[in-house]
Amino acid sequence: MILFALAYKCNDALSTPQFWAEDATVFFSDQFGHAWPQLFSPYAGYLHTLPRLVAWAASWLSPGKAPLIYNAAAIVLCALAIALTCRRLRNYLPPWIVALSFLAVPTSGEIFGTITNAQWFLQFTMAAYCLAPAQEKSSTRASWLRAVGILLISLTGVFSTLLLIVVAGIAAAGWLAKRLSMAPFGGTLSRFIASRDAYAVGPLVVGALVQVCVLVTHPPGEHEVVQPLLPAFKSTFTQIVPIHTFGSDFLTGTTWLLLYAGVLAALLWSRKVDGHARLVVLGFLALAAVECFAPMLRIADLTPMYSLGAADRYFYLMKVVAWWALWLALNNGTKRSRLDATLTTTALIMLVAVTNTQYLRRPSLVDLNWRGHSSVLDQPGTHTIPVNPGWSITVNVSAPTPP
């Protein structure tokens, strides 16, 4: 069901496959003409292992089929990420609420159906396995498959470094709580380190350290902080985040802050709700807050951010996890309250969805006839091909070496 829902949200990705942005200008362009995957070629200061592997696999076939392979791989990866997240968190959150929050929240649509943006879904799986405690003992094969999967995700984009900071912060708080003989979150905080899944956290640490090394040796340009800290914080969380989460900013700034404080208070001190669930969601919220706030500090003009269609990918984690936090805040631990929380949260998600129907599917991309343009890539010379969204790539094809 998740796979079909994602395909529906970007149906032209399969019916009229086109390249989107870095799918062409980075991954296709860098892989073209190379027999081996370009796994160690950083982009924007980080490695992007999974998109590089998709580009390598697509290079086995004709260039005309590349957009379809890229888009199909992106849809499958994102569907798998959602399914694994639902499964991993099922003991703490209703799978229905988790899945619905992924699929029914309004978005600009740019994250659907492209391998460039698959990382925004994959981060959920990585965080779910690292923030939730280890499950019952699994087979050696399953454990190593989990480790490989987490490592591949951690080597795809920036998120492993951010998640490691969050995990380290919770671990430090847990160590302090244990030393002070305190038992917040029903004692789960003090047991945080001991209850970790080594096959998830270990690969996270390795991947994050590799990404930090790549960032230090290949720093991206124009990442200076240009916004004042406190005004940017206020604008981000009292105006921009509500617009991207709910489609509009319908409360005052003070009211939004009081609402955040109420939800956080419920997650911190509600003794009737499972401590593991509260700690997991708080970890997700911390990661989401960093993802929302850090990019805003580097943008000189925040005016475009006051539209749901602008840079919405930075807010996807927050707009999904916000519903998880609301569900926990409405739950007091009883079976009846769990049902009421599920019904209320579902109704609110659907209310936001029906009032933002234009943001539930990705707008169709312009058909730039990639298949026709790519037919020249078997001819020597320099070829410039248009791709969405109004970009182009230049591909140099060398003449065959005479025998």
Note down, in words, how this protein is organized.
With 403 residues, this protein is mostly helical. The protein has 16 helices and two strands. It has helices at 2-9, 12-15, 22-31, 49-58, 66-88, 95-103, 119-131, 140-154, 159-179, 198-217, 229-246, 253-269, 275-297, 316-330, 335-354, 370-374, and strands at residues 381-387, 391-397. A two-stranded antiparallel ribbon has the order 1-2. Helix 11 crosses helix 13.
| Number of helical elements | 16
Percent helix: 55-70%
As a percent range, the share of strand residues is: under 5%
Radius of gyration: 22 Å
Structural class of the helix and strand makeup?
Answer: mainly alpha
What distinguishing features does this structure have?
globular; mainly alpha
Compile the SSE list and pairings.
Layout: H1 2-9, H2 12-15, H3 22-31, H4 49-58, H5 66-88, H6 95-103, H7 119-131, H8 140-154, H9 159-179, H10 198-217, H11 229-246, H12 253-269, H13 275-297, H14 316-330, H15 335-354, H16 370-374, E1 381-387, E2 391-397
Antiparallel strand pairs: 1-2
